[in-house]
C-alpha cells in the first residue's frame, strides 16, 4: 500500500503548478481520501487536448482521490452566450457521453467517478445568496482580471462574464471538495477563489494545474478553431490530414503542438499501460492495452518513433527530455514524429468512434447539440447590357451639351 508521500507524488506528478499542496499532504497524513473536482463547460466539441486532464484523473484515482466531474452547464450559457440554454442542455448530454467513452477507452473505472450538472445546485436559494454576497465584495476589476484567460474578452463585456469566476469559486464549496483541478489557464480564477472564499467564511482549497497543449498550428488548442485541434470523433483520414498540416519545424521545440502532445498525452498513457501490464495500476482492461512502443524495445522505453532502417531504424525514448533533445538535434525527422503521433492518436480515438457508432442515442444527441449550420447561397446578380438603351442614354446626356455648343457658336 502506498504511503502518504507516495500518494502525494502520484497526485502531483506531471503537473505544471500546485497551489496549497500542504493541505493535501495533511489530509493524506490523516489517512483520509482527498476529494477533488474537474469541471468543463459544454460549449464547442471536445478535442484531444482533453486527454491531458482526463489521463491525470487516472493518477488521482490511483492515489485514492474521490473525483467529481462537473458539467458546468450554467457556465456554458454565461460565457458570452456561446449557446442558448436549450442547446447547452443537449451539449451537456453530449459531453457526458464523450467523457464516459474516453474514460472507458483509457480503462479509467467510471464507477469511481461522480458526474454532476452545475444547474443541479447552482440554481438553489443558498447558492444564489452566496453569489449575491460575492457580488457585494468583489470589484469589477477583480472579476474581470480573474476571468481574463478563460472568458472571451470583448470590447463591451457582458455582466455574465464577470459572474463566471465567482460561480467557479463557489463550486468548490458546494461540491464539498478539498482541491480543484484544471488547466494553468484557470490560475487567475483559482487565486480569486483562494482570496474570496475565506471572506464568505469558507475554507481555502488547494489548486492543481496541468499544462496546456499547444494547437496544431502553435498557440492554444481551441474548440472554436477547427484548424488547431483534432476532435474525438475525427476519422483516421481527417487525423492524418490535420497532423500532416500541423506545425512541426525540424529542430524547433517551441510551440510545437505535435511534440507537446507526445509529452502531455502519449507518454503518460503509454506509462499507464506499462504499469497496468505490471499489475501496478487502477486501470481496467480495454481493447487496446499496448503502450506506444515497439516489440523488443529496451527496458524503460515509454515511446518509440519508427524510422526507415536506412535512416537508423526505430528510436526508443524513456522520457520526454530524451525525445526533445533528439528532435532539437535533428536526429528525429518531423515526418517520422508526425507518423508516430498520428498512429497514437488514431489508436486512442478508435474505441471512442466505435462507441459513438454503436450508440444511436448518442448520435441523436450529437445532431441536436451541434446542428449543421445552413449556409444560404447568395444569388449572383447578372448585369444585362442593352446596347440600344445605352445609346439612347448617351443621346439624352449629350443632346443638351451639343445644343449648348451650337448656341454658343451662333452667339459668336
Automatic annotation (TrEMBL):
The keyword Ligase applies. Keywords: Ligase. It comes from the Eukaryota. This is Tyrosine tRNA ligase. The keyword Ligase applies.
